[in-house]
Design a protein that fits this description.
Blueprint (H helix, E strand, L loop, with lengths): L1 H22 L13 E4 L5 E7 L9 E9 L10 H4 E5 L4 E2 L3 E4 L7 E9 L15 E9 L2 E9 L1
């Protein structure tokens, strides 16, 4: 009886693990109307980005994203989001972040914070404007994944 129960538990654990492995991958969906949260769960780290409207905040001069990284197997403290991320408009122009603000208590296997990009290019033109049909946030080299693309449809 004990061996039968143990075998059943082992089979369920194996099938559950296989389902997780087969189901993981790039869940990177274009933002639908009213939806601004995008998630990528490739590799050992899940990265989620939420596009925020910074017009009513102290970040009115920035394009603002809340970012979270979660894992059970990788220490995330060594990842510098200012160095690993950029914004790319629909004309393939790349813009580096202005600032990463780490959330209080963030660290280890669960990191989160606010990623700020300039709202305007050096010439004063808006980085994301009515000519753009989308923009992407690109995050490189997190959890063994070379590049994660988070596309926001406009």
């Amino acid at each position: 009886m004990r061996y039968g129960l143990l075998a059943a538990i082992l089979i369920v654990a194996i099938l559950g693990g296989a389902a997780l492995l087969l189901g993981s991958g790039n869940n990177n969906f274009p933002a639908e109307s009213g939806t601004t949260s995008l998630t990528n769960d490739e590799g050992a780290v899940t990265v989620s980005i939420n596009y925020l409207d910074g017009t009513d905040s102290e970040y009115a001069d920035y394009t603002v994203f809340s970012v979270s990284m979660n894992t059970h197997s990788v220490n995330l403290d060594g990842y510098n989001m200012e160095e690993l991320s950029y914004l790319k408009d629909s004309n393939n122009q790349k813009y580096l972040p202005s600032k990463w603000i780490e959330d209080e208590g963030s660290g280890g296997h669960h990191r989160s914070g606010t990623l700020l990009f300039p709202k305007y290019a050096e010439n004063g033109d808006p980085i994301v404007d009515s000519d753009d049909s989308y923009f992407e946030i690109v995050v490189n080299e997190v959890g063994g994944v070379a590049e994660r693309n988070f596309r926001v449809e406009l």
